[in-house]
DNA sequence: CGGTTTTGACCAGCGC
DNA sequence: GCGCTGGTCAAAACCG
């Protein structure tokens, strides 16, 4: 699994934060030799030493955190293996009861909204497969669940891209209409999107993305911040939700039948929950953020000196 | 005026 | 073959 490696990469800050050390000593000696021991210079040297110690401390903390994360990942992997084994023992019928007796393309896609019980349902993209097998074989399909205001009747999912609505239908298994969108860059961009309110929870919109954009996200291109590679990996299928403007995307559970994504990073619901929790606990920890900031600034200092 | 949305009609796949 | 269903088309309406 790639998670451990990825985290390892992010936390492997090779901090070389002591380039000032030698200069300090040389400077100090020189000052003493020249009998120009100025009070101001002494104070600045003291400050440098304090900063140096602080950087060392933060560096150690960073290493400890990296070690902890590695351990967590290892434990998680063990749990994951256990879970997979257990799943293998459960008969498949129990998992897929709802679709029995229904048309191939007619599985209740809203039964799994917010719930994590069908994350590995690779058929999520097969809604068209029985009708348009030629298209769906090669197309990536991902699904996003968006929490919206119940009173908000518009089936709009702000994902940064521009969409053109080309149809709306009321489907059998859901009283709420399903809206069909095409990327505004069509026909050059083949991406389609289906948005429907969840039958169970009216405040949740289910958006199914079909295909991949062959152009930049119009709003994303305006961003000056560098997006985390972790986010890029987890959200890549439709490049969904990486924009800070997309504040209403409160819950992103991107499902992709692209096996690459599933195996590398989104193999199971448990994994998603753990990753989310890990990320939120880390980002809410001020000491971690401070350590990260120190590590990055140290790295930048190194690069500017080199 | 051009782009987008709405909405009824049409088409194709599937089950009976 | 027929009816049901999901997906798409395209003309009309709408909007900035």
Automatic annotation (TrEMBL):
GO biological process terms, semicolon-separated: defense response to bacterium; defense response to fungus; regulation of defense response; response to molecule of bacterial origin; response to salicylic acid
Entry GO MF terms: DNA-binding transcription factor activity; sequence-specific DNA binding
Stretch list, region Disordered: 112-135
PROSITE patterns assigned to the protein according to its UniProt record, in alphabetical order: WRKY (PS50811)
Keyword set, alphabetical order: DNA-binding, Nucleus, Transcription, Transcription regulation
Bias kind Basic and acidic residues: ranges: 118-131
Name of this chain's protein: WRKY domain
Organism: Dillenia turbinata
Organism lineage: Eukaryota, Viridiplantae, Streptophyta, Embryophyta, Tracheophyta
């Amino acid at each position: 699994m790639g998670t451990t490696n990825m985290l390892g990469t992010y936390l492997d800050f090779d901090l070389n934060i002591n380039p000032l050390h030698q200069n300090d000593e040389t400077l100090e000696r020189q000052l003493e030799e020249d009998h120009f021991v100025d009070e101001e210079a002494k104070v600045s040297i003291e400050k440098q030493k304090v900063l140096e110690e602080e950087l060392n401390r933060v560096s150690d903390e960073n290493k400890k955190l990296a070690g902890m994360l590695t351990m967590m990942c290892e434990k998680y992997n063990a749990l994951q293996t256990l879970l997979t084994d257990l799943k293998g023992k459960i008969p498949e019928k129990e998992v897929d009861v709802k679709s029995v007796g229904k048309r191939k393309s007619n599985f209740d896609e809203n039964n799994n909204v917010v719930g994590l019980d069908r994350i590995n349902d690779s058929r999520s993209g097969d809604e068209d497969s029985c009708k348009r097998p030629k298209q769906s074989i090669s197309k990536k399909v991902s699904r996003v669940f968006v929490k919206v205001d119940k009173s908000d009747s518009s089936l709009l999912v702000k994902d940064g891209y521009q969409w053109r609505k080309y149809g709306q239908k009321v489907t059998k298994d859901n009283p709420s209409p399903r809206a069909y969108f095409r990327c505004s860059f069509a026909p050059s961009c083949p991406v389609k999107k289906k948005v429907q309110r969840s039958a169970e929870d009216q405040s949740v919109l289910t958006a199914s993305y079909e295909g991949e954009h062959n152009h930049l996200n119009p709003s994303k291109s305006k961003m000056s911040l560098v997006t985390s590679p972790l986010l890029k990996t987890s959200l890549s299928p439709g490049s969904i939700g990486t924009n800070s403007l997309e504040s209403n995307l409160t819950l992103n559970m991107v499902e992709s039948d692209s096996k690459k994504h599933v195996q590398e990073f989104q193999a199971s619901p448990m994994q998603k929950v753990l990753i989310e929790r890990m990320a939120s606990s880390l980002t809410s920890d001020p000491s971690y953020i401070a350590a990260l900031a120190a590590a990055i600034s140290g790295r930048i200092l190194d690069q500017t000196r080199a």
